[in-house]
């Protein structure tokens, strides 16, 4: 499926979520939380898995786990530090992610990452796979006061895009994510949404409205190459 795009718009930005979209970090997040909580029981495990699937930031997860409000900043910070170490070792890109990112870049698309993970973690993982150079910018948890789905995050993306292209440049934006948090933010931004049905989200198609013409679902990142053909009619190497 090819999303209908405005042919007259030269600059087309693809906003990628990171966790669960480009990289499989579920286990790293899960293990980091268990280490920080220093406890394990069936109820906590089940609730934690559910919260992670929603794509919530660490503060919201801590709050939903019943952690006292005054302890949340400390717990969230500790979790991020533990996650950083685990993710560098255990986080892997999803199949075709590397090929897709390189190809979309060569086809002329502007790529960026919008995530609730700290930017330094994303940068290190992308560097590990030699992919950081293909992204114009990364907006991470430390770049905003309020994480997604708060509008502040997408406004910062728009600002960074203007800094890259200039305020008057014509542009068209698309959002690729795997959670209802991503979907909610795409609706706030008014951008078409591509839902990646990752192994952890594959059965959760209720995340989007089935009759919403601005939503496309994919089971593999490779499908993005059909959705976003070469700009200008042919692949051009910009590497």
Summarize the structure.
It contains nine helices and eight strands.
Report on this model:
The protein is of the alpha/beta class and 239 residues long. It folds into two domains: 150 residues, Rossmann fold (3-Layer(aba) Sandwich); 65 residues. It is built from nine helices and eight strands. The strands form two sheets. Strands 5-4-1-6-7-8 form a six-stranded parallel beta sheet, with helices on both faces. The chain has a two-stranded antiparallel sheet with strand order 2-3. Helix 6 links the parallel strand 4 and strand 5. Helix 1 crosses helix 2, helix 1 packs across helix 4 and helix 3 crosses helix 4. The mean pLDDT is 84.
CATH H-level superfamily title of the largest domain? HAD superfamily/HAD-like
Largest sheet descriptor: 6 strands, parallel
Q: What structural class is derived from the secondary structure elements?
A: alpha/beta
User: Would you identify the regions where 5 or more consecutive residues have pLDDT less than 50?
Assistant: none
Strand order of the largest sheet: 5-4-1-6-7-8
Could you estimate the helical fraction of the residues in percent?
40-55%
- CA radius of gyration: 18 Å
**What overall geometry do the principal axes of the alpha carbons give?**
globular
Look at the structure and give the mean pLDDT.
84
CATH topology of the largest domain: Rossmann fold
Euclidean distance between termini CA atoms: 27 Å
What is the second-level CATH architecture of the largest domain? Answer: 3-Layer(aba) Sandwich
Number of helices: 9
Number of strands: 8
Strand content: 5-15%
Order of helices and strands: EEHHHHEHEHEHEHEEH
